Amino acid sequence: MNRYDVCVIGSGLAGVSTALSLNKNLRVALVTKKALEDSNSYLAQGGINILKDPSDRETFIEDTLKAGHYKNTKASVEKMVDQSPEAIQFLIDLGVEFSKKNGQFDYGREGGHSIARGLHIDDEVGKNILDVLYKRLEERENIDIFEHEEALDLLVHKNKCYGVQTDRRIFYSTNVVLATGGLGGLFDRSTNFSHIRGDGLAMALRHQVAIKDISYIQFHPTSLYEEEADRQFLISESVRGEGALLLNHEDRRFIDELKPRDIVAQAIFKEMEREDVAYEYLSMEKIGKEKIPRRFPMIFQELMDRGVDPRASYVKIIPCQHYTMGGIACDQYGRTSMEGLFAVGEAGNVGIHGSNRLACNSLLECVVFGRLLGAYLNSHLLKAKDFPGLRLDFAPNPEDDRREIFERIEEDEKIKAGAN
Ligand SMILES: Cc1cc2nc3c(=O)[nH]c(=O)nc-3n(C[C@H](O)[C@H](O)[C@H](O)COP(=O)(O)OP(=O)(O)OC[C@H]3O[C@@H](n4cnc5c(N)ncnc54)[C@H](O)[C@@H]3O)c2cc1C
Prior knowledge:
Blueprint: E1 6-9, H1 13-21, E2 28-31, H2 40-43, E3 48-49, H3 57-67, H4 74-94, E4 100-101, E5 104-105, E6 107-108, E7 118-119, H5 125-139, E8 143-146, E9 151-157, E10 160-166, E11 170-172, E12 176-178, H6 199-206, E13 211-212, E14 217-224, H7 237-241, E15 245-247, H8 261-275, E16 280-283, H9 291-295, H10 297-305, E17 315-324, E18 327-329, E19 341-343, E20 348-349, H11 361-380, H12 398-419
Parallel strand pairs: 1-2, 1-12, 2-8, 12-19, 18-20
Antiparallel strand pairs: 3-7, 4-5, 6-7, 9-10, 10-11, 13-18, 14-17, 15-16, 16-17
The structure holds flavin-adenine dinucleotide.
């Protein structure tokens, strides 16, 4: 019988931060649908925020609330900002090395930020953090990793979670963590991996677990325009932070490039409609021909591989789905409305982002709240002597899940429209 103290579903930064924060005497299963690195966290380019100086506290909180249109839960935002230096230190202690300039951290600035406070590692912050964390994970003898295994549903009895059934086996555990990411895979155009498509949310809905603000979905202003692509290639906001401009087909700017994402994305959609075109342009000229490959090596290479030289020509861009702010309602310890079921990262909603996420706050959310959840489970682990003989008697249908989620999104939109 596969019995585990804690069963974590998902190998993005939220799931991995949680697993690495658990005591080494706990038996932990980490289950993930594809390979370890097939997560949206791994794709993160721009950076991870930190409160670099106590004098920035109020501004950092205000930038986050303002970007989220004050729909955020302020106590959660304060917690994240206050815990950010410890969260970054946790990563550094595990071996992560952030980019430096003249021996000091090199902070990047993105849309909606009053000052530069994003730590980066070249332009592949997610990959470079997670490659280190995966090594630490593999060194932990108490953590068993199950790759290419899909969680299908929760095992539930009287609103208490007793484990998870996957496409291969049953994991019995009275502490199940949903770190399954957002909904991007359900959209036609998204920067997300297509296999990350709200599976955790669908499980929660099937068992009447409370969800919150599910219609709050973020569109990123600048994904590369391609006629056909499985996943939209993202051009990080930090490119605009370094001076890149948005231009229309008449070579004119139409928006302040460093406004929050929702405002910039809406302005691009509006301009596309006004000009009756399928895309607008990003000009990287102001960054400088030499600096582009040095500061953005991955983005530069990906564009070149697609036949676009950003040193010599404009880049065609279009906004697309990027992030899910809403999700499974949870508190700062990841607790949901079901006993023994926890949510963290993009799958959960602890109220950090309100109706629009400030750039570089999601990786930070994963680490801060993953650590808090780990610490909570270390001292409040739920134990069960007996597991009711539960197993699934049906196979979840992804099409039904998709329909259900979009219906919930529509319902939430209507409620919010009525409230305004
Ligand atoms: C292109 C891109 C760039 C980004 N850049 C930044 C940035 O610069 N800064 C920033 O802060 N944020 C950025 N983000 C957002 C951020 O990377 C992530 O969205 C966020 O870290 C969410 O992490 P997570 O661990 O909650 O989920 P994810 O990283 O999405 O991980 C979800 C995990 O759950 C697994 N899973 C899903 N369903 C199942 C199932 N049924 N069974 C088993 N496993 C399952 C997946 O395989 C995956 O391992 C970016 C996102 C994208 C897509």
